[in-house]
């Protein structure tokens, strides 16, 4: 599950506020053309892992104009803080320090101490892998693609935390291209499937390739092949990669060769990459950007 959820509809926004109870909800109103929005995004993803008891979400102001208008958003990025459905704070601009200060101020009591850092090293944000977390927020959605995908059940579904899924079309094979917004290290993969019979069995992974065709899959050497069993799709299962080969990754291509029970089509409900952004720990650029804004 992604640490930061990008809201797709105004109803999702309303549901988030109405169903959050007394939890703090932090919403990042951003635009794809906004430079400071891209600059602060890695920090926003980091802080969501640091404060797992706080709900973090993003709203594309061009996609959800009605939400941005009702919230009186006039500059990007704008961060709004809600509790019990009511706005308790607002911050305009890409200030990492002020975002965290407001989270600390409004988070309320936590079981993990005043800084809000959970003591549970096996939280859903890092899947029990210390030093790494969900990389979904570093994926570039508009550049994702999948060959032989069903148009209705397409690749964008695998990065959502709902019942949607990706399904192949004319046979069981899929080629999934996943671009990242900045270089990352990838430690492991987590896969979810609704129907184990149609879940992937053999996946070949190619690093730093922008494209790959089915004809190329046999002639191009993969970085790693993983063979999956039904137990690999259990709730607490993760598939470790050869970490040394996934140290500076800008994009991945996954060739799903077959599925568990030779079904006609393959389905993937969720695909999660666990790792860390290479530049995310360098906050100097963020601070410099704060001074320039």
UniProtKB/TrEMBL annotation:
One protein family per Pfam = PITH
For whether the record's keyword set contains Glycosyltransferase, the answer is: no
The PITH domain is annotated at 124-293
Region of interest: Disordered: 104-126
Instruction: Give all residue intervals belonging to the Thioredoxin domain.
Output: 1-108
Q: Does the keyword NAD apply?
A: no
Cellular component (GO) terms are: cytoplasm
Origin species, per record, is Circinella minor
Transmembrane stretches in the record are none
PANTHER family reported in the protein's UniProt record: THIOREDOXIN-LIKE PROTEIN 1
Listed Low complexity bias regions = 112-126
Q: Which UniProt keywords apply?
A: Disulfide bond
Q: What is this protein called?
A: Thioredoxin
